[in-house]
């Protein structure tokens, strides 16, 4: 009896994997055993058919007579092996999708009796359902076909009815038939398949397991790619409604030569390459579906155009989404491939181009996103030619960076840039929008290419930078949206846009101009920052106060150095405007164009920095300007009507024009400065907290108007720079000035009050006798008139009339016109017991027309300060006397016209007081002054002590006592006629006093009896002596004294007044001594000395006059002023070396008319002028005779100045020394004439002059300012050599700055420039450009000095002289040749050159072997250095720098120098020979530096020294290396030298060209003698080369010889070269490496891959040292030489065989289970597989396994997968023994891992076995004997690429297992077992296949292996009853240990030659542990299910896995 059993499915998985379940159907197994169905060449699956039958079951009156059944049959999987190209047709016959199976009758319980009374019977029609067949046609490897199609006229049967039916008559139920049902036709291609016609399988699947070519159209439901290469030459149509996808299961390649309809997907991440080929015309292709499905299920590469084919390119449209790891545009030689992404479709992929500047990406429309980067950037990057996006209505989004020449915005859509854009331009071709995401930049221009202005919108969604220009004039953008919250948007170039919209609170930075408006889209929104100089914004900023900017930054608010000058040509609306400056160095400036307004606060980031300029017209600044803490530096306004509506804080408010500045708020700052005669109007209640200045240079300019009550806190105007007018005191207002005021007129415009808390210099003017003037300061002065004769001030308050106790001491230096003057005192007003009188001091010569009263009786003081003064009205009153009336100040004339009432009337000085009316007082004191009483004097006492009294000079009487108590003074008034004498010599004092000019008509004193004193000029009066004056001492006070005739005195002392001598005639003989700062006017000169006595007094000498005597100041240095009003003569010294005068002023009255001006003469004693300063006024001329010196004695070191810049002439007639600064930086002299032939003028300090002009061929020395002991400049200005052969000498430590702002030279081509010491020269010197003559000669390098030229130097060739042993540094180029006059040093900076145009040699020396030339870094040599007859001493290349510095110097010129050095011993200097070079002298290569001889011949005439750690490099052609003796050759490099000194630690570098075969030598250096015993190898680190071949360099006689050797100097065999060099150590690849090295040594002509491998191993690409990277490369290449050494191929054969043995063993175990108590299914009878009554059994099992071997030591791991089946036929004998035969087929796939990842093999195994089993009681014995044949196809990665191979193997295996069952009552069964297995494997030899080039392929010998395995283990089972079923769980443990061979070494040989080598292989796992867990159960009477899982682990843990099995059995 036969039985059929469903086979088990066995499989193994990797550690951590999931258990897969494979259910096997018995029918499939049977088919596999019996063989596959073989179809004819045309039709397949014709045996797929249906057999019809019937069933019935009728027991009731009415029944179902028949129900039709159907049974499907036929083969659904067929393999095609034909290689003929015939057509293939799927042609199945019929199929039943459902049929009736049985009919079941049931009890009729329903009430369905109809009217006829017949009750129906009820049946159930049972049906079965089967899906339509899925037919699979497999093309074997190499199989072909013409066309592939399917026939759709399949007959399909189905049951139309199912379930209960009511039958009232016998009824038959038949199946229905339909046609053309859509069954599924599938294709599988194993590889190397070709379909030369079309393919149409409808909705079926195409499985591509190998390479395939489809020439015609392909129609299918889906395509699975598990192959490497697939080509579709025609359209591919994947049917919609199916999966309609081309799916990559592995990383394959699909080439599309036409369109594809459907999707392209990936079964994993980064799988598959799709190439759209295109053609030479760039044909259009399309893909209608998606490519990839997600970021984790994307394809690897999408190629648009075929890579590597320069003639082809593609235009590809993709109508779906794209998910790819990479998209590449492969272009034609002249054409770009284009990817067009259809509307609404996205791409998730990087998009690159194979060619920079080619490739087009087009986003067609809709909402689209490009997720990856487009193009590449950086070095070697490749940008696309064009990206097209933004079509009408589209939204195009780029999520990554975009690199393209142009990004074209093609429509009105939107382009979103989620990354940077880098290219030439973003071009708007329509009115579209570009949106840049935050953090991303636009590194290109942005253009409007529409031809219409104001098109295109740019939106920056965050912080971004736009580097290029945006828009253009006439082609601007429509809008830019920027400045979102928290962002910074930067525009680095000009921007042209209609509106720049500030969309948020972020920042927009403009680094260039903006043409357009800045629009705030909300209130107080956005920050706009301008940076850079001279920037312009042409439009408005903001539009209203509700749509204004938050902040306008002028200058960067983040970079302190980035300030700006910005002009805004529109109105500004901003919450805040901030001027951000360059610290305190440079102010940012906002210039508001004429007529434009700003509504904004304006502040500065730095105190006293920042400028606001209102250009003109009517302009308003609405917000506050500056803050008190941070004031602006400057505000410029007043060119029109400038209005500041709020407070202003600025250092300076400059009124630039004659317009009006309205201050409607307060002003706080340093000063309001009038730079023109403009007007400032201050609104009512607003104040000025600053000074107010007139900066026009013209006195009385500028008007200040206070419209109401205001306070001005600072000084107003200045002396000589006063305001023109101040308008204040409007009706009911109070105007207060807290500081000094300088103004021509202070106009009181109404009845208000003007309060002065400090001095007033100017007049107080009023109209209509109105206004109140109040002084409230403790001490203050009014210098001008108060009121006028026609319009007086209503009230003059001295002291406050409103603040009690606020008294004042006020001096008025002008006349006073007031209705009333009131002294408001502190009469104990503060209740503190103190009283203070207010005091009015009327300045010298000034009068008061006003009643003078006091607010408190006996309080208040009136003081007449001096001069001629008149008090016109009553002073005090009856009962209201003043406390004091003081007059008679020094030299004053005081007049009281009306009555005087005071407690005290006194003289306060030496002046004259005249009382014209009554004087009522208690005391009259004549102290040191003169009192004149013209009328009545009423007093208790009149005392004359040392003073003078004048009495009754007009009329009246004196009621008082008059008394002299000392050597007093008589004051003579009118009526005195006669002489004045004294009773004793030198006694008596005469004072001239009076109310007007006083005159003494007689002689004063005699020559014999001189008066002791004559005092005149007191109180500022003018006193005149008409006759001679004789006195011991004449004293001139603070007034004016006129001496009309002779004056004889011992000493004339002048105080603070003025003395005019010889106004009519005569002479003056006296010494003049100044006691104060007075003035002496010498009209006819002076006989006598002048002594300023330490006082800053003044002597004025009239035009043409002089001084016959010296001028000294013998008390304090730098005092006294001498003024020559015009021309004059100085005939003696001025000052001394101890005390110099303060000033010598020339031409003070502008009266000069002679050429010499003031001439300082010279005598034999010399002439020296000592002064603090000599000032040339009014364009004066000062001439110094030969030998005259001027010495500065002041602390500021300035000696000669001018009052106005660019004026004044200083002329030297010969040799002079000037000690002190000449001119100043802001006031330069116009002309200095010097340089007379043969003469020298020396300036020992700084010179500022417009022009220093040479008058001859003389010399000028500029010694600069050495006062601070640091280097300084010598002169600022232009030196005009006047085409003279003149000399300019620059002193030691004097620097020279050439050019504007420094020193310029003209007419100097014949001039000589000398540097006496150390100097630094900044700026280009020479060149004959404007202001920069080229000198005839330049001399520098004085001994022990250093001259540094920071920039280029031009000099006539052969005329730059190094004239000493000092140093000259050239930090720029020297244009001109260089001559060493002595042994000096020249340093040339890195990258700088000595340039000559005609000189044959750029550098020479006057004396051979002198002069050192150091090139600090690299240079360009135009000529040789030195000559053969005049060699330099030293030439050094790379003389500067540290170890971090590397210089490479190319040398093409010869060097003539005693010594030439390379490097400085620390840096790395490489001297590269670019020609054959001669070093005439010695050459030294210092440590760390290199001489690169290259292929040139170098000659050293003296000694060549190679220092320790120096490097000398040669390029050696291997053809010049000889095996017999030394040689030198062309084109290899060499050195010839007289002597060679080589340090034993010198390094020699050899760059081999070509490949060395064997060994040989070459002569590197030839010498007459050698010092040193050099022996260098790579091992000792002294030799390096670009080959791994050993280079040995040693001294051989008088030569340095290179020996090229492959044996390490004999330390190892030639075959070990690669092993030793790579340091690979003991490795399985050693044999292959040795064979290759031997081949390289022995073979003259190396060909193919082996030759290239040798070259690549031996050459050191990119370096001269064997780096770790190079060693790693060598190791990798050696590994690739060998076959796969991990025994995976043998293991695959063993694995397949063992799997079969295991499967057969399980079969025998199953039989025991079925026949024993181990497994007794419930209810099973008669059909049990394995019962002794079943004599024969046929079985089939599908099997599978997966395993992983980890890396062990050097052997790589691998993964294996085995699938197949076993089918057997066995018979159970009557004895109970079982015997059987089995056949098995298996496929084992091995994928290598680790280093060998990518290598694989595929083994097909077929195995025949016989087996038997015998039970003896509870003991069993199983045995199996097998024969297997294995065919393996492998691929291996070699150095030359992929190699393939095919090999066969045979295997014989035998296995015996013994086990015994032990029962534990009813609980469990334990079965221990032991096994012995033997195997013999014979793998035949094979040869790898590749191209003809791949001669590194291997010829591999056969391998044999004998292996045994011992195994022990135990199995534990039990029975569990679960309902009607029995469940048998099972657990087992086992161990297996191998004996015999554990590896099989491989013998191989390269197909290209070389010796055979052995590769040791990895040992196979010896010990394996196994644990298993299973369960078996019954599912019904005829079915059972068996489940099991195993865990396997090698002893060392490197093998680990799981196995599982599932069996399903169906018995019948």
Notes on the structure:
This protein is mainly beta. 4% of the residues lie in helices and 49% in strands. It has a 21-stranded parallel beta sheet that branches. Strands 131-134-137-139-142-145-148-149-151-153-155-157-159-163-162-160 form a 16-stranded mixed beta sheet, with no helix packed on it. A 13-stranded mixed barrel has the order 2-164-165-166-167-168-169-171-174-176-179-180-181. A hairpin with a 2-residue loop joins strand 167 and strand 168. The radius of gyration is 59 Å and the shape is elongated. Residues 1-40, 115-119, 1524-1529 and 1715-1734 have low confidence and may be disordered.
What labels would you give this structure?
21-stranded parallel β-sheet; mainly beta; disordered N terminus; 2012 residues
Shape: elongated
Secondary structure: number of strands: 181
Mean model confidence by pLDDT? 86
Helical amount: under 10%
Structural class by helix and strand composition: mainly beta
Gyration radius, rounded = 59 Å
Low-confidence stretches: 1-40, 115-119, 1524-1529, 1715-1734
Proportion of beta-strand residues: over 45%
Number of discrete helical segments: 6
User: Termini distance?
Assistant: 11 Å
Largest pleated sheet: 21 strands, parallel
């Amino acid at each position: 009896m036969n039985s059929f059993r469903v086979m088990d499915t066995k499989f193994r998985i990797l550690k951590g994997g999931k258990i897969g379940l494979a259910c096997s159907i018995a029918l499939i197994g049977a088919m596999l055993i019996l063989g596959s169905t073989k179809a004819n060449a045309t039709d397949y699956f014709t045996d797929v058919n249906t057999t019809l039958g019937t069933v019935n079951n009728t027991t009731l009156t009415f029944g179902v007579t028949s129900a039709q059944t159907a049974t499907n049959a036929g083969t659904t999987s067929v393999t095609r092996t034909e290689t003929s190209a015939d057509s293939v047709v799927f042609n199945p016959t019929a199929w039943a999708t459902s049929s009736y199976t049985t009919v079941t009758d049931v009890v009729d319980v329903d009430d369905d009796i109809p009217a006829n009374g017949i009750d129906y019977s009820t049946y159930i029609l049972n049906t079965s359902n089967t899906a339509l067949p899925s037919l699979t046609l497999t093309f074997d490897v190499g199989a072909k076909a013409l066309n592939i199609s399917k026939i759709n006229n399949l007959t399909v049967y189905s049951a139309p009815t199912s379930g209960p039916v009511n039958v009232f008559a016998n009824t038959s139920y038949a199946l229905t038939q339909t046609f053309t049902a859509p069954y599924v036709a599938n294709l599988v291609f194993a590889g190397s398949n070709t379909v030369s016609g079309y393919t149409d399988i409808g909705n079926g699947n195409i499985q591509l397991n190998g390479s395939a070519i489809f020439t015609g159209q392909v129609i299918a439901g889906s395509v699975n790619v598990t192959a490497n290469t697939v080509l579709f030459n025609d359209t591919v149509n994947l049917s919609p409604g199916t999966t309609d996808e081309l799916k990559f299961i592995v990383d394959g390649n699909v080439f599309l030569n036409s369109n594809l309809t459907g999707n392209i997907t990936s079964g994993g991440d980064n799988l598959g390459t799709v190439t759209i080929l295109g053609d030479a015309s760039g044909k259009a292709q399309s893909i209608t579906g998606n490519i990839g499905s997600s970021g984790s299920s994307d394809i690897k590469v999408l190629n648009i155009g075929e890579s590597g084919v320069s003639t082809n390119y593609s235009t590809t449209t993709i109508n779906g989404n794209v998910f790819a790891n990479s998209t590449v545009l492969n272009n034609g030689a002249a054409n770009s491939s284009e990817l067009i992404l259809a509307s609404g479709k996205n791409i998730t992929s990087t998009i690159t181009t194979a060619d920079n500047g080619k490739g087009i990406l087009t986003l067609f429309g809709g909402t689209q996103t490009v997720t990856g980067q487009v193009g590449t950037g950086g070095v070697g990057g490749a940008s696309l030619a064009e990206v097209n996006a933004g079509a009408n209505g589209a939204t195009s989004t780029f999520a990554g960076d975009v690199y393209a020449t142009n990004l074209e915005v093609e429509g009105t859509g939107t382009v979103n840039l989620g990354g940077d854009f880098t290219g030439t331009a973003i071009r708007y071709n329509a009115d579209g929008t570009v949106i840049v995401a935050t953090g991303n930049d636009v590194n290109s221009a942005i253009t409007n290419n529409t031809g219409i202005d104001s098109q295109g919108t740019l939106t920056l969604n965050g912080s971004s930078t736009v580097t290029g220009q945006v828009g253009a004039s006439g082609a601007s953008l429509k809008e830019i949206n920027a400045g979102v919250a928290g962002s910074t948007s930067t525009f680095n170039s000009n921007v042209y846009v209609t509106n720049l919209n500030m969309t948020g609170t972020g920042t927009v930075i403009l680094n260039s101009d903006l043409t357009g408006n800045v629009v705030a889209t909300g209130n107080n929104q956005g920050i706009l920052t301008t940076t850079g100089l001279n920037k312009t914004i042409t439009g408005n900023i903001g539009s209203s106060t509700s749509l204004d900017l938050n902040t306008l930054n002028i200058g960067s608010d983040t970079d302190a150095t980035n300030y700006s000058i910005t002009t805004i040509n529109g109105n500004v609306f901003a919450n805040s405007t901030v001027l951000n400056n360059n610290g305190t160095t440079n102010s940012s400036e906002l210039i508001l164009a004429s007529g434009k307004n700003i509504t904004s606060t304006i502040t500065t980031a730095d105190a006293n920095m920042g400028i606001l300029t209102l250009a003109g017209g009517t302009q308003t600044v609405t917000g506050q300007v500056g803050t008190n803490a941070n004031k602006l530096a400057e505000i410029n306004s007043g060119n029109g009507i400038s209005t500041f509506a709020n407070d202003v804080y600025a250092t300076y408010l400059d009124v630039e024009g004659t317009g009006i500045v309205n201050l409607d708020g307060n002003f706080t700052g340093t000063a309001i400065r009038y730079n023109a005669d403009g007007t400032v109007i201050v609104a009512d209640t607003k104040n000025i907290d600053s000074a107010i200045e007139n900066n026009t240079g013209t006195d009385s300019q500028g008007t200040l108007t206070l419209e109401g009550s205001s306070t001005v806190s600072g000084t107003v105007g200045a002396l000589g720079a006063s305001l023109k007018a101040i308008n204040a005191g409007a009706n009911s207002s109070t105007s207060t000035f807290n500081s000094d005021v300088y103004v021509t007129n202070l106009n009181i415009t109404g009845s208000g009050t003007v309060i002065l808390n400090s001095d007033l210099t100017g007049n107080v003017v009023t109209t209509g006798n109105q206004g109140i003037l109040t002084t409230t300061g403790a001490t203050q002065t009014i210098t001008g008139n108060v009121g006028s004769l026609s319009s007086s001030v209503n009230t003059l308050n001295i002291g406050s009339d409103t603040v009690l106790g606020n008294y004042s001491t006020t001096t008025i230096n002008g006349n006073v016109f007031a209705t009333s003057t009131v002294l408001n005192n502190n009469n104990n007003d503060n209740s503190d017991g103190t009283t203070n009188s207010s005091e009015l001091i009327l300045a010298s010569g000034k009068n008061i027309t006003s009643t003078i009263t006091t607010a408190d009786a006996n309080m208040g003081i009136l003081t007449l300060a001096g001069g001629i003064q008149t008090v016109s009205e009553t002073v005090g009153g009856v009962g209201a006397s003043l406390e004091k009336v003081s007059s008679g100040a020094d030299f004053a004339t005081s007049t009281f016209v009306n009555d005087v009432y005071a407690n005290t009337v006194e003289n306060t000085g030496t002046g004259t007081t005249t009382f014209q009316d009554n004087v009522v007082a208690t005391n009259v004191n004549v102290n040191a002054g003169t009192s004149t009483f013209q009328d009545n004097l009423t007093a208790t006492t009149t005392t004359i002590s040392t003073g003078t009294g004048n009495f009754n000079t007009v009329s009246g009487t004196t009621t008082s006592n008059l008394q002299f108590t000392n050597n007093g003074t008589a004051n003579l008034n009118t009526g005195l006629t006669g002489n004045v004498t004294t009773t004793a010599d030198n006694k008596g004092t005469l004072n001239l006093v009076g109310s007007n000019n006083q005159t003494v008509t007689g002689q004063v004193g005699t020559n014999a009896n001189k008066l002791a004193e004559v005092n005149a000029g007191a109180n500022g009066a003018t006193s005149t002596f008409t006759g001679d004056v004789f006195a011991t001492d004449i004293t001139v006070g603070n007034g004016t004294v006129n001496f009309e005739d002779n004056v004889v005195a011992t000493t004339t002392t002048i105080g603070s007044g003025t003395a005019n001598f010889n106004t009519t005639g005569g002479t003056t003989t006296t010494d003049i001594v100044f006691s104060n700062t007075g003035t002496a006017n010498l009209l006819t000169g002076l006989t006598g000395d002048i002594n300023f006595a330490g006082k800053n007094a003044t002597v004025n000498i009239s035009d043409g006059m002089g001084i016959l005597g010296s001028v000294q100041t013998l008390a304090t240095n730098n005092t006294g002023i001498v003024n020559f009003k015009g021309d004059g003569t100085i005939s003696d010294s001025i000052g001394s070396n101890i005390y110099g005068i303060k000033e010598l002023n020339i031409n003070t009255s502008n009266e000069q008319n002679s050429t010499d001006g003031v001439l300082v003469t010279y005598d034999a004693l010399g002439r020296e002028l000592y002064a603090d300063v000599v000032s040339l006024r009014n364009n004066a001329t000062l001439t110094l005779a030969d030998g005259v010196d001027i010495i500065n004695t002041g602390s500021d070191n300035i000696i000669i100045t001018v009052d106005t810049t660019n004026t004044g002439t200083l002329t030297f007639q010969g040799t002079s020394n000037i000690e002190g600064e000449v001119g100043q930086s802001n006031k330069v002299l116009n002309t200095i004439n010097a340089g007379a032939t043969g003469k020298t003028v020396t300036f020992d300090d700084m010179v500022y002059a417009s022009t220093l002009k040479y008058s001859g061929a003389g010399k000028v020395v500029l010694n600069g300012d050495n006062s601070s002991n640091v280097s300084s400049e010598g002169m600022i200005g232009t030196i005009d050599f006047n085409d003279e052969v003149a000399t300019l000498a620059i002193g030691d430590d004097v620097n020279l700055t050439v050019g504007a702002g420094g020193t310029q030279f003209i007419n100097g081509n014949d001039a000589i420039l000398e540097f006496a010491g150390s100097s630094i020269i900044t700026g280009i010197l020479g060149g004959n450009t404007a202001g920069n003559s080229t000198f005839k000669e330049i001399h520098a390098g004085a001994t022990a000095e250093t001259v540094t030229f920071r920039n280029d130097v031009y000099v006539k060739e052969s005329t730059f002289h190094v004239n000493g042993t000092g140093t000259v540094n050239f930090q720029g180029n020297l244009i001109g040749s260089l001559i060493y006059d002595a042994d000096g040093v020249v340093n040339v900076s890195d990258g700088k050159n000595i340039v000559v145009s005609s000189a044959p040699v750029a550098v020479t020396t006057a004396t051979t072997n002198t002069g050192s030339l150091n090139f600090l870094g690299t240079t360009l040599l135009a000529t040789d250095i030195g000559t053969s007859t005049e060699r330099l001493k030293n030439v050094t290349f790379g003389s500067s720098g540290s170890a971090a510095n590397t210089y490479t110097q190319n040398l093409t010129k010869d060097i003539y120098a005693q010594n030439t050095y390379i490097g400085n011993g620390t840096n790395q200097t490489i001297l590269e020979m670019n020609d054959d070079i001669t070093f005439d002298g010695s050459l030294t290569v210092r440590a760390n530096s290199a001489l690169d001889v290259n292929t040139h011949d170098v000659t050293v005439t003296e000694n060549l020294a190679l220092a320790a750690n120096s490097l000398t490099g040669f390029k050696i052609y291997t053809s010049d290396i000889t095996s017999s003796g030394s040689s030198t050759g062309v084109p290899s490099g060499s050195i010839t030298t007289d002597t060679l000194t080589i340090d034993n630690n010198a390094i020699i570098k050899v760059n081999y060209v070509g490949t060395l075969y064997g060994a040989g030598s070459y002569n590197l250096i030839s010498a007459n003698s050698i010092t040193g015993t050099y022996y260098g190898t790579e091992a000792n680190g002294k030799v390096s080369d670009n080959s791994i071949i050993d280079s040995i360099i040693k001294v051989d006689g008088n030569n340095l010889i290179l020996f090229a050797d492959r044996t390490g100097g004999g330390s190892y065999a030639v075959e070990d070269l690669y092993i030793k060099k790579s340091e690979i150590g003991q490795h399985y690849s050693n044999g292959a490496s040795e064979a290759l090295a031997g081949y390289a040594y022995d073979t003259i002509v190396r060909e193919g891959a082996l030759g290239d491998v040798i070259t690549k191993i031996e050459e050191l690409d990119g370096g001269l040292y064997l780096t770790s990277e190079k060693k790693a490369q060598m190791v990798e290449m050696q590994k690739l030489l060998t076959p796969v050494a991990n025994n995976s191929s043998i293991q695959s054969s063993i694995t397949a065989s063992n799997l079969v043995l295991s499967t057969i063993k399980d079969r025998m175990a199953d039989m025991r289970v079925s026949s024993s108590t181990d497994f007794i299914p419930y209810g099973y009878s008669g059909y049990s597989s394995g019962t002794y009554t079943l004599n024969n059994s046929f079985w089939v099992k599908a099997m599978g396994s997966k395993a992983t071997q980890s890396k062990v030591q050097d052997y790589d791991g691998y993964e294996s997968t085995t699938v197949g089946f076993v089918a057997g036929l066995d018979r159970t004998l009557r004895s109970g023994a079982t015997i059987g035969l089995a056949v098995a087929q298996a496929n084992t796939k091995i994928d290598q891992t680790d280093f060998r990842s990518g290598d694989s093999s595929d083994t097909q195994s077929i195995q025949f076995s016989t087996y038997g089993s015998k039970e003896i009681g509870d003991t069993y014995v199983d045995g199996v004997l097998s024969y297997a044949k294995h065919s393996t196809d492998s691929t291996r990665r070699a150095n030359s690429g992929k190699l393939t191979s095919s090999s066969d193997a045979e295997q014989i295996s035998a296995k015996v297992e013994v086990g015994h069952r032990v029962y534990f009552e009813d609980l469990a069964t334990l079965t221990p077992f032991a096994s012995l297995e033997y195997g013999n494997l014979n793998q035949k030899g094979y040869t790898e296949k590749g191209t003809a080039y791949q001669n590194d392929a291997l010829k591999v010998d056969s391998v044999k292996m004998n292996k045994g395995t011992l195994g022990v283990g135990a199995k534990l089972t039990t029975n569990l009853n679960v309902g009607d079923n029995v469940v048998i769980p099972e657990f087992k443990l086992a161990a297996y240990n191998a004996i015999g061979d554990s590896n099989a070494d491989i013998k191989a040989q390269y197909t290209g030659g070389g010796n055979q080598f052995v590769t040791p292989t990895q040992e196979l796992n010896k010990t394996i542990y196994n644990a298993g867990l299973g369960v078996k159960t019954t599912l019904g009477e005829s079915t059972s299910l068996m489940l099991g899982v195993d865990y396997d682990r090698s002893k060392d843990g490197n093998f680990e896995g799981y196995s599982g099995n599932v069996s399903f059995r169906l018995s019948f």
